[in-house]
Amino acid sequence: MPLDGPSTVVTRLTARRAVRSGAIWGGVFGLYVAASAAGYATTYPTPAARARLARTLGGNSGLAALLGPARRLDTVAGFTSWRTMGVLTVVGAIWAMLLAARLLRGEEEEGRWELLLSGRTTRGLAAAQAMAGLGAGLITLWAETATVAVWVGWSGKVHFSTAGSLFLATALMAGAAAFLAVGALTGQLAATRRQANGIAAGVLGVSFLIRMVADSSAQLAWLRWASPLGWAEELRPLTGSRPVALVPVVIWVAVLATTAFVLAAKRDLGASALPSRDAPPPHTGLLGSPAGLAVRLTGPVAIGWITGLAALGLVLGLVAQTAASAITGSASIEKAIRRLGGYRLGAASYLGVALVIAAALVAFAAAGQVAAARDEEAAGHLDHLLARPVSRTRWLAARLTIGAALVIAASVVTGLAAWVGAATQHSGLGLGQLVQAGLNMAPPALFVLGAGALVYGVWPRAATGATYALVAWSFLIELVASLVTTNRLLLDTSVLSHITPAPAANPDWTAAAWLTGLGVLGAAVGIIRFDRRDLAGA
Amino acid sequence: MDAISTEGLSKSFGKTEALVALNLRVPEGEVIGYLGPNGAGKTTTIRLLLGLITATAGHADLFGIDCQRQPVEAHRRLAYVPGEAALWPALTGEETLHLLGAVHGKMDARYRDVLIARFQLDPSKRVRAYSKGNRQKLILIGGLMTRADLLLLDEPTSGLDPLMEQAFRECVREARERGQTVFLSSHIMSEVEALCDRVAILRAGRLIEVGTMAELRHLSALSIELQFDGTPPDLSTVPGVSHVTVHGNRVRCQVTGPVEPLLDALAGRGVRHLLSREPSLEELFLAHYGATSPEESDAA
Question: What are φ and ψ of residue A507, in 5° steps?
């Protein structure tokens, strides 16, 4: 491949964006590794506490199915490996598939590749160069994670070998690498970024399911070799590393990337390997008003969120009873539950903590609604509506109402699904109790929706970033800060720390009313400001 | 009542003055061309008239309705066609037209079908599968099918082939016959020349000329080409004559004001051939922007 000036422009353009994204997520990965190791070392200081944790968590089949089998949980290394691999492999895979689809198919869909390809490069070569750029993003993610892992490993309490830390960072990349290749391939198969993401998400879902089945029964453990997420698990960093499991990952990446390259070289620009349905039968039922249009456009996204959260609620409900016995072993987790305002123990206490994380996902869905409104404006679609007899106030109010309906529906469905799961395990949690616990997740998301609308009304170009940042910050605080600090002011900056961990405690409807009220206020100010500002393009 | 009437309408983006004190009146039923190079403020004007952006100063009425304060009322009487058709990629053409018609509230379904046939559009496809030209047809049909009293067209024919350009002209003529007002922002001089009653020319956010084609021509020079039997006389000293170029026995020049002094100067000088031509809109336009006219560049 020639590497002189103009022919590397695709690599550089892709690499710049991939590296920026990799740098941000490298920070998250590093923080999570550090918090897991340091959190464990301070929360379980004595061998006795560690042995008790290992007994309870290690024997929990529900958690093993969710996060993978735990090994040597009585050591910092074992816990850190289990916790970070279980969470970050999937996070990395999602990051990678979205990034690849965005920088390959997304760029092409927006027509930017037409400019590049009219220069001195061909389609196949451009795809190869873009994949090289994506690789740069992955290397950045690895470098940051490795740096933090090595640095944390040196600390006296943690004590990982440098080689062990480096292998942990490498193992944490396995999911991302595998799904970067999946995203690159689906970017060639599908005609749109959305369709590419859909196919890749399907591959990820199947991989996760196979791994989950493999981890839930010893007879089926061999199935692990049938899933990219299983290979990552077989790497076993810090707990008897097995670099041999890197072989299938490398082969997978090589095969998928080569296929993507061949497909890219063969097809026309803008075309896809899979046939796309360009002339579907018309459905005009919802297209009578701007609100109907918004329902239609946001429908697939809403169904995705609600289905995903229902599945999560079901799984949480299923594992609550067994997981609860693990929590009872840890004084600090009981303390954390009490800090959040919880007092019930057992399955209720587990669900109370777990549903706060689900609440973060509902808040992400709310941020997505703000982003969708902003996208309509930035893309110029909104001009067509607002140049017709459509009031701006009513349009934004309707758009936010649809967002709020999604938030409330997703929350209640999560609670319902958790009840179904818990009921099969006879955990003794009532339907009303869990529906309330579900509803309890809505107020932070409604606050996010309102805060996002406020930024949208005042400073539209910042709305998407600011709203996602608010949720991401809150999520990080819940995930990380609550393990290492009890500073009330810092914890209060998270929108999620203002709800009680229902069903471990009764929902605090006063706080919920405050969050919702502030959200409505923010939305109202945002709507008024939106009515008076210029429409702003991308 | 005027379809459009603006008073001191201005818009600044930070320190950039996109439109400066626009005073423009467009009577009902008129077809007006709005000319200017990229960045002159044409789109800014239309977005101000639509209330999509807020005016820094001044005032604009559409049919006596303040279009900045009461955009919804104003929009009931107009249709807008942008030059860049950013439509919902997942909707089909048919769905898009249904949506745009329903949102507008008023739509002539029979005329819509006429337009679909005239522009040879297949409305069953998704927007993302259309070419740029087909998307532009879709958005044109979406605007024209409303039969609105005022059509605000912002470079509506960008991406259309010459046949579709003819179809578009037919639509504007029909609109004029029905008494609709048309505000046509355009780059294409021949289009404006063929369709418009009046022309407004914008430069760097300022309106520099408004008038009928005849009025604009009156202000500007006449192009004259002469061929002599022998050596041409020196015409550069004749009052009103400028831009004189000589090629052997042929002379080209421009005349501003009365032609009489030139005719006097030519009497008995053996003129074999004389061609006088009014400047095209393109030449008028280029003259306003100080660009070299084709004659001058030929001579150079």
Answer: -55, 140
